[in-house]
Amino acid sequence: MSGPLPSSGPLSLTDIQGEFLGSAPIGLSEYYRGGPYVPDSSSTATIPTSGTIAVSNFYGTRRRIAIPITISSPTLNYDLYANRSPSYVAGISDLTFTVNSGVRVGSNSVDAYAMSVPSSFNAGDTVTVVNNGYIQGMGGTGGPSILGASPGPAGFKGGNAMYANRPVTVQNNGIVAGGGGGGGTGGGGQDDKGPARWGGAGGGGAGYNVGPGGAGPYGGSNGTNDAGGGGGAGDAATGGTGGGRGAAGNPGSNSGGANPRPGGAGGPAGYYIVGNPYVTWSATGTREGSVG
């Protein structure tokens, strides 16, 4: 399968068989488009499905199918195999998924990937991702505000951006980033015989979708696509700021007074890639976070 066949000049039945396979003796009637050897695709449009067929019909054709797929609007939990084209034929397809400039591919959960390259493709297929936009994990939630002399809870983890379970080439001209971790809660407080005081909630981590700020009366701010949200200013201690793209959340502040308590740890960032041994980075672009 060397294809494509030459667009002019000498072209033999042997050349056609070399590209489209088949067995001897060679007959052109074996090679109608849509038959056992020639897929019905844009690469074979000049080959008839029946009737008169000539060697000249095969100029510039190829057995393999080039399938371009464009992601032109924001989307979540994008599975490349689930979004393959109807023209896909297992084993002979060369798929290129392009994320347009400014478009974000994200996730609706920190436990789900923004983009997945599953093993469902045939081993003979090639898969390429051209990222001109953003592929981002969801941001982590900030720790909740707390009342009383208690240590602050930790912020929650950010989500992962990409997952690969088969070979894929990634041309990253944009940004691939794990979701930022949520900020930790500030330590709660209560002096001897005094009123209980609040530790402020942590801010949400950056991502797409964004991480929510921690809940409570001193709630944290939601993250944005690119930056973490601020922590809530409790009356005992302030919650930590959520992490930016690919960054862990910040810890909450320690409370003061007679019974000080530590702030919670920031949540870890999501990975920008899980399954990196399967990935060939033809362009690295901006990658934020770490490798899982």
Structural features, described:
It is a single chain. This protein is mostly beta strands and 292 residues long. The protein is rod-shaped. Helices cover 3% and strands 23% of the residues. The strands form four sheets. Strands 1-4-7-11-16 form a five-stranded parallel sheet, with no helix packed on it. Strands 2-5-8-12-17 form a five-stranded parallel sheet, with no helix packed on it. It has one helix at residues 13-20, and strands at residues 65-71, 75-76, 78-79, 93-99, 104-106, 115-117, 126-131, 134-136, 146-147, 162-164, 168-172, 175-177, 189-190, 196-199, 271-274, 279-283, 286-288, 290-291. The protein has one helix and 18 strands. The model has no long low-confidence stretch (mean pLDDT 95).
